[in-house]
Amino acid sequence: MRRFLIISSFIIFLLLPSQAQTGENLRFRGQASGWVNVNPNNDMPLWTGVRYIPQLNLDAPLNTDRKFDLELSANITGSSSIDLPDRFDIDGNIKPYRAWVRYSASQFELRLGLQKINFGSASMLRPLMWFDQVDPRDPLQLTDGVWGLLGRYYFLNNVNIWLWGLYGNRGPKTWEVGETAEKKPEFGGRFQMPVSRGEAAFSFHHRKADIGSIVFQFAQTGNSGSDLSEGDLNNEENPVAGFERIPENRLGFDAKWDIEIGLWIETAWIHKRKSLGPATNQHLFTLGADYTFNIGNGLHIAAEQIMISMDRDAFQLDNRNNFTALSLSYPVGIFDNVNAIAYRDWTNGNLYSFVNWHRQYDRLGLYLMAFWNPETFRLPQQTEAAQMFAGRGFQVMLVFNH
Question: What is 116-401's CATH number?
């Protein structure tokens, strides 16, 4: 499927009108970054790396309000982890970052390929982080895309409808228990509408979940499986039978209002149609607010509170975990900005803290970051950036955009 989508994008690129492949309709840009991360308590206390994301965009207008366009980009990384004087590991990777083609009109768009799909009102603790893993502390805001087809229609009264179908995406995404079953499509949609002084939306997603590896671990450790499988683990020849394609439905609601201060709510309920003990139902509720105070150049403060519960029965809410996030941002001048983010894990008593000073020199950005976090990371982000912020240390990053 992935090969088909990439090849299709290149074929469309070749078939587009030749005049669209010249001049300002064809654009090449890129982002190069390099970093040094120092974490004395880590197994490898020094980590250095470079990244380059080349990006090709093509616009092919068909008439006054219709066009084809595409984007092709790659994520090229190289890193080394160092523990002087005798340990030095080098790693590198090249993978597609975006590869999509889009047909759009004034009120409609249809996008096919490897793309970023994200939505919701929250910014730090996001129950609707279904298809991305953007970490608010990451200066590059990187996230892997998903393979699929996304259609959006925008009504003149600001109502909009999203419909999507995904295929070939392996590896658990944020909030997922188990991977998506191989060769099984996913699909869903979103209805977004204006409300008084804000907007609200309902979201839905369906997939077949493969939790065979999780069940296998229970079987290997001698767990009877009574909570997890209602006795189905008694199949000694294949203890994971029946756990490779479990139907899963997700329902989400989010809303945001601007009433002197910004207020928002974001919720999600993830339900598996087979008894999996506490993993049968996942409940996530976030409340948030923000305000810019008239202090100096303007101090922006945002706060979010999330409650997460995994339960056997829907809305039982017996196994609750609570996190609070607080973000402060202050523009020191035209070129400088200071940002601090703190997370409090009330269930485990952990505090995560992060400070970033950013200075922009035209196309060159300098980031100086410091962090003080638990060595065992329990926040939902699973990105490379999150891994680098485990423990205590600092990081220097240079970013060049061309």
Answer: 2.40.160
Across-strand partners of 14? none
Neighbours of 288 (CB within 10 A): 22
pLDDT tens for residues 283-339?
Answer: 999 999 999 999 999 999 999 999 999 999 999 898 899 999 999 999 998 999 999
Do 148 and 136 contact (CB within 8 A), yes or no? Answer: no
Supply 393's token pair.
Answer: 């240390």
Longest CA–CA span in the chain (Å) reads: 69
**Burial (Cβ within 10 Å: 0-12, 13-18, ≥19) of residue 236:** exposed
Q: What is the model's pTM? A: 0.87
Q: Determine if the peptide bond prior to 85 is cis (ω within 30°).
A: yes
CA 368 from centre of chain: 23
What's the token pair of residue 247? 């139907």
Kind and range of the H or E element at 281? strand 281-293
Map out the domains of the chain as residue ranges.
1-84, 116-401
DSSP states of 48-95: EEEEEEEEEEEEEE-SSS-EEEEEEEEEEEEEEEEETTTEEEEEEEEE
- Which contiguous run of DSSP H or E holds residue 384? helix 384-388
What is the pLDDT averaged over residues 262-266? 98
